[in-house]
């Protein structure tokens, strides 16, 4: 089991984990967040949200300056103290949002696929779909290297669409509510692997990692992490990890921030 005295990093998804996906609240997680901060344990946010959204949430949570992974691994922000790093302040993995947007539009026009993206709808519709405030909606639209997609076609057409994207070097990932299209060079697992290596190089040892996620797009991150918390979620698809050893993986009973605390308490003890 990991310990609060280890060289430890917590890597966490946001919606459905640290943040309630229905209310967008995180107050239930604050006691554990405070304890991790007191023990100087970094909490690396790792989600489908944009860098702009993530920075705003970091400020709310008291995690300013920490590294983070945005847009499902397509964007990696480095720790503020790493301003001597060659890739500071952030790394973009693969194609840009604009490039991906053009590919999706071409496929929609040529093949007649039925889907809606954030670029297609107004702020009011995004607010209705997500429960985000006007301020956070504006930040959610600042995608740098991915596209958020609401599929409105059949499952058979989804498979064909996904295959075409794969042939073009892109991929689809299912989140808690939406699909996300990004370059195949992205992904939470590859982003976390790269970020762990940066910590190893700077600190002289590989940190122990606890990953926290609730949906299929978290799987690669959970596979890379030394320990995995799978928070009870709402995805139609199961969260299936490669190494499901009970000593490594804990599945919570509670949802959202309560489940987030439950999982970390399981691995780190109630003192956290």
How does this structure look, described?
- With 272 residues, the protein is of the alpha/beta class.
- The protein folds into 2 domains: 8-92 and 187-268, HAD superfamily/HAD-like (Rossmann fold, 3-Layer(aba) Sandwich), CATH 3.40.50.1000; 97-183, Threonyl-tRNA Synthetase, Chain A, domain 2 (2-Layer Sandwich), CATH 3.30.980.
- 36% of the residues lie in helices and 21% in strands.
- It is built from 9 helices and 12 strands.
- It has helices at residues 30-38, 51-61, 97-111, 123-130, 134-140, 155-167, 188-203, 219-224, 256-268; strands spanning 8-12, 43-46, 68-70, 75-77, 90-92, 115-117, 146-151, 170-174, 179-183, 208-213, 227-232, 249-255.
- The strands form 2 sheets. Strands 5-4-3-2-1-10-11-12 form an 8-stranded mixed beta sheet, with helices on both faces. A 4-stranded antiparallel beta sheet has the order 6-7-9-8, covered by helices on one side.
- Strand 3 (68-70) and strand 4 (75-77) form a beta hairpin.
- The longest helix has 16 residues, at 188-203.
- The protein is globular and about 55 Å long.
- The relative contact order is 0.18.
- The mean pLDDT is 93.
Features of this protein?
single chain, 272 residues, alpha/beta, Rossmann fold, Threonyl-tRNA Synthetase, Chain A, domain 2, eight-stranded mixed beta sheet, four-stranded antiparallel beta sheet, 9 helices, 12 strands, 36% helix, hydrolase
* Beta-strand content estimate: 15-25%
Straight-line distance between termini: 14 Å
- CATH hierarchy: architecture of the largest domain: 3-Layer(aba) Sandwich
Q: Tell me about the largest β-sheet.
A: 8 strands, mixed
What is the alpha-carbon Rg in Å?
Answer: 18 Å
* Coarse morphology: globular
The CATH H-level homologous superfamily of the largest domain: HAD superfamily/HAD-like
H/E topology pattern: EHEHEEEHEHHEHEEHEHEEH
What percent of residues adopt helix (DSSP H or I)? Answer: 25-40%
Quick one: how many beta strands?
12
Quickly count the domains: 2
InterPro entries: HAD-like_sf, HAD-SF-IIB-MPGP, HAD-SF_hydro_IIB, HAD_sf
Pfam families: Hydrolase_3
EC number: 3.1.3.70
GO molecular function, one term: magnesium ion binding
